From TrEMBL:
Ranges of residues in domain Carboxylesterase type B: 43-541
Residues spanning the membrane: none
Record lineage: Eukaryota, Fungi, Dikarya, Ascomycota, Pezizomycotina
Coiled-coil positions: none
Protein name: Carboxylesterase
Domain of life of the native organism: Eukaryota
Matching Pfam families: COesterase
Amino acid sequence: MAKVSSCPGVSNCDRVSCLDSAFARKAAPSIELPWGIYEARELAEDPEIYIFENVRFGEIPERFGAPQFPSWTNSSVQPVSDGRNCIQIDPSVLKNPPGGENPIDAPEDPKEPHVPESEDCLFLDIYVPKWVFDEDFDGGLPVVVWIYGGAFAFGAKNHGGSVLYNGRGIISASEYQTIFVTGNYRMGAYGWLAGDYMQGVAQPNAGLYDQALVFEWVQNHISKVKGDKEQVSAWGESAGASSVLHHLIREDGKVDPTFKTFVVQSPAYQWAWDNKPNGGLDQIYKSFSALAGCGEEFDIDCLRESKNMSEANQELYKTVATSGLFLLGPSVDGKWITTLSPLAFANDKYWKSSIESTIVSHCTNEAAIFRPKYVTSEETFDQFLESFLPGSGAADQRAAIKKRYACRINFLGDWNKCITTVIRDASFTCNTRDLFSAYPDKTYMMRYAFPTKDLAHHGSDMAPLFTNNATEAYHMLTKNGMNETDATLYSAFLYFNRIPLAYKVYFASFAASGGDPNVLQQQGKAPTWPLADGSDGDFMKDVMTVRMANWEESAFVTDVEDRQNAKGTCEFWTGVAGAIAGSGGGSFIAGNNFGAEGQIPIEL
């Protein structure tokens, strides 16, 4: 861990007062890049942190093209007002919005965005402890790079100016020993159109390449703000977490992602594998093309010249999306993603040589906000499976899913609860099992179950990570659809249980130490967080669970099994992936041990 050297002979606890007078006499620092100079400002909520806001890392990308660093030179100071966020959809007007009901990553006010939106949106923010600019400090601090969520359809590095994705809490909890970076990437059709046609004329998965350019920028320039490029940690939640996952499997794991540690919270995405000519991904392209005024044709030039892209992007999610999950996102493209992630991990096609430590977590009721309300019968259950795994070629797999989950037996005919569990396993929790299996001796696992298992919805773990007081938590929760009374109680109990302080210290310790969540001193009863143990049986053990505290025990408990990402369940889904993708996952036989009716260990 880096050592504060700004005030020689002065203890850490006196460091702030020591530096106040020194920094009062200094101008705010700047970072000089080939394409411009960017000045810092003092963060209003914490005067011990500088923020470099709207730092350009990419030039205006060609529509559907790969990103690149700016090609021009400029030696003048760049105005903060030049910054833009990427174009996003408004999920509030959709019947089945991607990201579920009231997603926490949705824009604050889509009609009046805090920051203008544009295709010229490749900007990042850097949060840096003020003390590192003291001329006596010549070291480098660890760097966290945050990738935001939002179902690959909405979101931004600064989330409309709200507390989400603000580096203040983590930096403060790390005792000002960490730098925090968050950057934009293209979303919706702009960033995630894929398929056979796109592979030949444009850049599929452009959003992943935008994220990779942020990591490359960090390697090239983070030292200019006293960051250490050898101590980079990739963090993300939901779509951001599954983005981190896909950086690990890039080109069959042959490309160094440049980060040494990572944190993934609720990694979520929907499989997209059909990149054959006129396959499922090409059909989405043609649907979008028609909405953009180019007809159902393969004409990339027409799309690049279209003047109603934003409207077409919004309309695509209205007319095509039916599942309420993720219409667009990481897709098999033959290069970055050669196969579905369960198969990549199962077949040892992922980056491993420089990964030193990981945190992998999920909420205990991930899929509640994603559940399709119309699924109330066997007929509608079948309809959902048809949209989830489409095509006649997946008929055997759909039948195997019905047999394995045995809704009439395991769920007493509650088809909605049954499909919610299917979604949880396939799109959320088995991603956490895959990551644990890839890094079994380096992974700290977490179940977020506050205040109860049923109320720990997808995204609720962002409250202890990013909010700094009960008022901030209240505003985050009401925005996420919680009524005012419940949000008041939730935020009050969250802070009464002192969960955010201990929670942030674990994560900040992981960041500042290079991968150990137990280095920084905790207050109260927070226990040592052990590495997870998956060596015996179907369930992982030694999983940190966050829950409502009682008078005798901490809100953090470690001697817990996780029954929501069982080994057998996730092997079943790997088998499904192998069968539908035909990418080396082994033969799938509906009647084998993966498909035993009524024998699935289910935690509801």
